Amino acid sequence: MTQTLKIKRPDDWHLHLRDDAMLAAVLPETARHFARAIIMPNLVPPVVTGQQAAAYRDRIMAALPDGMTFEPLMTLYLTEDTDPDDVAAVHASGLVRAVKLYPAGATTNSASGVSDFDSVRPVLERMADIGLPLCVHGEVTSADIDIFDREAVFIDRILDPIRRSTPGLRVVMEHITTSGAVDYVLSSTADLAATITTHHLVINRNHILVGGIKPHYYCLPVAKRETHRLALVKAATSGDHRFFLGTDSAPHTDGLKENACGCAGCFTATNTLSILAEVFEREQALDKLEGFASLFGPGFYRLPVNTADLTLTKGAEVQYPDKIGVGTDTVTVFDPGFPLHWSVAD
Ligand SMILES: NC(=O)N[C@@H](CC(=O)O)C(=O)O
Ligand SMILES: [Zn+2]
Ligand SMILES: [Zn+2]
């Protein structure tokens, strides 16, 4: 008897679509399975104004193949020059669903991010007033902090002080990678949630470094030791509404990944749902997948749950491409390192 799992159509609460040829290549990979996604604004130049967000949304919709439906949920990139009134206006218009905080220099295309956190206080206070979520790349960037400690230090030195001084600010800790981040979310009573990526449920730092360096497993925040991966799996499969899916699917061309200075990012859009089903099944938590992928995100973002369903079927090993083409280049699809058996029914 084939096993099937029917869930509400999922959303991706942290996604990089890029622009131009890359956008055209990766958008169908997400739109095939996901109804909506929070679109990261770290383009070059970044999406900092409502006008830029509207233009980017139009480029995304223009790149969507005929017959596919998808709703991009736009974000603004927070800079030290962001005007609270502009933020309030684009929120009121429904164009923008979150503001994204990148500490300057923390990750791909974050040069315009924030160095002086006091300078953005007026924006954060306004966001608390209007209920607009702040998505946070939670890593400090000081050279003296070990890269494996950067998330923990960010929580202590930056995030917790911001939250204490801005009551009511609604925060999504993006792509969490540590048990400390899980505990921090669990310790909060309100206004705090976290996204967890597909790849951080699958790999630890050994996958990146043992037996030769694996550039396609390198992302930021970098995967930590196994105890942390286990804490993430426990959180994701727990049925706690404060943890939901943000794939952080972050395509870079193979030339830029397999490089002496390789870019950070794992491209998981193509096989995310098959991987998640496998991970949840191993935890005997298939009944928790719908909450994680389809229900808790809309709950936090105060949006309706999708009405359409998506069905996963367990069967023969799922075939997916190793790479997808982008113009004359390629992007490597994340390899979970184990066979997948759950496929999404058409
Ligand atoms: N996650 C990554 O490793 N990379 C992301 C940026 C980010 O989400 O930090 C990207 O834009 O490539
Ligand atoms: Zn990030
Ligand atoms: Zn990201």
TrEMBL record:
SUPFAM superfamilies, A to Z: Metallo-dependent hydrolases (SSF51556)
Top-rank lineage group of the source organism: Bacteria
Example GO molecular function: dihydroorotase activity
Domain Amidohydrolase-related: residue ranges: 12-268
Positions annotated to bind substrate: 16-18, 42, 137, 220, 252, 264
PROSITE patterns in alphabetical order: DIHYDROOROTASE_2 (PS00483)
Family annotation (CDD domains): DHOase (cd01294)
Entry note: cofactor: Binds 2 Zn(2+) ions per subunit.
This protein's encoding gene: pyrC
Quaternary structure annotation from Swiss-Prot or TrEMBL: Homodimer.
Function: Catalyzes the reversible cyclization of carbamoyl aspartate to dihydroorotate.
Protein name per its UniProtKB record: Dihydroorotase
Keyword check for DNA-binding: no
